[in-house]
Write a structure and sequence with these properties.
single chain, mainly beta, 4-stranded antiparallel β-sheet, globular
């Protein structure tokens, strides 16, 4: 900031081809732009736009739909005094899920408008599935990072008739779920292998047959399936730098 001399960590969105070529910046300005995911048309991206250079529950982050070719953008959802972030577009029917931070509680929401519903647990970072959501369920909020106990869970249905099924254990840090376009596979990052380094795990959608995909030193996280389901993109510090990698599933 030229006026104050304070360094602004204004995260920006970039886009590139699946082989890493033709990287270009999508957003500019002083907002913190976070958690992008593609709509099925592969021309528009949903992301969270935070008006300050750090995330705060009352910062008023809103969800934005951006055309990656024209740069045109529109607000999809906003709520005064609350931050809508950790948004995702499900590869199934373009259902939106987002984390609602503000007001009396912090919770995960599926959908927007009158058809949206709230997950009635301590929840963050979810991805929508038909008639529900797979999300992070934290047992004891506020623990240090290396002691957090987070399970992945799936909620079925709405309101009093809903039920929650846990897909992983709650003794480790299981987070950032992603689902395959055919709805059969679940990927996420977890420190369950050694309690320290995060790895990318892949399982059936019900959490069964879980296996470690990455098996490397350092951090591997934030998996997301390609739209054809043939590979997963993820972030990794395996070289000493934080980079974007991909792993083939075929």
């Amino acid at each position: 900031d030229p006026a104050t001399g304070k360094v602004l960590f204004a995260s920006k969105l970039w886009v590139m081809e699946s082989d890493g070529s033709r990287a270009r910046q999508l957003t500019t300005g002083i907002t913190y732009d976070d958690h992008p995911s593609f709509y099925s048309d592969r021309e528009h991206v949903l992301y969270s736009e935070i008006p300050v250079n750090e995330f705060r529950p009352g910062a008023g982050a809103r969800l934005i739909r951006l055309d990656i070719y024209t740069g045109a953008k529109e607000a999809v959802a906003a709520e005064p005094g609350c931050a809508l972030h950790q948004s995702s577009i499900s590869p199934i029917a373009d259902i939106i899920a987002c984390h609602h931070a503000g007001g009396k509680r912090r919770s995960e929401w599926v959908g927007l408008g009158p058809t949206a519903y709230e997950v009635n647990t301590v929840a963050t970072n979810g991805v929508a599935v038909p008639d529900g959501i797979i999300f992070m369920s934290e047992k004891n909020r506020g623990l240090p990072e290396d002691r957090r106990e987070v399970a992945l869970a799936r909620i079925y249905g709405h309101g009093a008739q809903s039920r929650v099924v846990f897909l992983t254990d709650d003794r480790h840090l299981n987070r950032r779920p992603a689902i395959s376009p055919n709805g059969k596979l679940l990927a996420w990052q977890t420190n369950q292998e050694d309690g320290v380094d995060d790895e990318i795990f892949l399982a059936n959608i019900d959490g069964s047959n879980a296996r470690n995909l990455t098996k490397t030193k350092g951090y591997d996280g934030h998996p997301w399936f390609s739209r054809d389901g043939k590979w997963i993109a993820f972030e990794s510090s395996r070289t000493g730098n934080m980079e974007i990698w991909r792993i083939d599933l075929t």
